[in-house]
Write a structure and sequence with these properties.
TIM Barrel
Length: 274
């Protein structure tokens, strides 16, 4: 059975609605999937309903932003109860940080001399099926950048774009567990964590209580995949994988790639959540 356990919809920064996602999954032949939107579970219920109607196996998920030692990490929560109060409080907190960060990035560009009408930005209605986020799509529409690449390389070429300080993993991991879920470190060797020593990061997160590693990911080469697989085997934790598909918003993240089969994963506890 083909598996993809890392997919974003238009509830966060992906382009596809749950309806479009289900159609794409059927075309791709994926039998087990998870919706793992950034810091929101808004599309879990409709995705679960549509999956059942289509005869697809589904695991409810979420991808939560964390900050550790000044670096951004993503922690996947699988099998979570999307109505858990503690989880929803955490997600609302992170979402509020991102909304403030959107505003901050626009204000910073104004400070840098860009002619931007801040009131027009505040009134801007973002079309979530475009993918990305409000500030990015607003800046594209007013002609200041062409895409996400130019947002970072053109508008913020001389300084990093503003980014929030999210909660520490030691607060996020127990929240996922408290919501009945299994915390999995997302793409440990990927771009989000590119400044980290992989094995050092794995050791830190294992100590913090991570219960799985996303070993298969489009940004993992063979060496990084093997490092994750060996670490997971050594520590007896779950092995997951996914495409990190954003419905075409990020061209290199294609649904069903890398090609992952169920037998390549270790999901002893996750199986109970399907």
């Amino acid at each position: 059975m083909k598996v993809d356990l890392h997919i974003h919809t238009n509830a966060s920064d992906g382009r596809w609605t749950p309806e479009r996602l289900i159609a794409e999954l059927k075309n791709t032949g994926i039998g087990l999937f998870s919706v793992t939107d950034h810091d929101t579970v808004a599309n879990i219920a409709p995705a679960a309903k549509l999956a059942a109607e289509a005869g697809l196996r589904f695991i409810p998920g979420v991808e939560i932003s964390a900050t550790l030692r000044g670096r951004l990490y993503h922690i996947l929560g699988y099998g979570i109860d999307p109505e858990n109060a503690g989880l929803l409080d955490l997600l609302r907190y992170n979402d509020a940080l991102m909304v403030k960060n959107d505003d901050k990035s626009i204000k910073r560009l104004i400070e840098l001399g860009y002619e931007i009408d801040y009131s027009a930005y505040l009134a801007y209605e973002n079309d979530t099926t475009r993918g990305g986020w409000k500030a990015l799509n607003f800046l594209i529409d007013v002609g200041l950048c062409a895409d996400m690449g130019e947002f970072f390389s053109k508008l913020f070429k001389d300084e990093p774009a503003p980014y929030p300080v999210f909660p520490h993993p030691e607060a996020i991991i127990p929240t996922i567990i408290g919501a009945g879920g299994i915390p999995v470190l997302a793409h440990p060797g990927g771009s989000v964590n590119r400044n980290s020593n992989l094995e050092k990061a794995l050791a830190i997160f294992t100590e913090l209580g991570i219960e799985g590693l996303e070993s298969f990911h489009p940004e993992h080469d063979a060496e990084k995949t093997q490092t994750c697989l060996k670490w997971a085997a050594k520590n007896g934790i779950e092995i997951t994988g996914g495409s990190d598909c954003h419905g075409g918003f990020i061209a290199s993240r294609r649904l069903g790639w890398p090609d992952i089969l169920y037998d390549q994963l270790r999901m002893r506890r996750l199986v109970e959540r399907i």
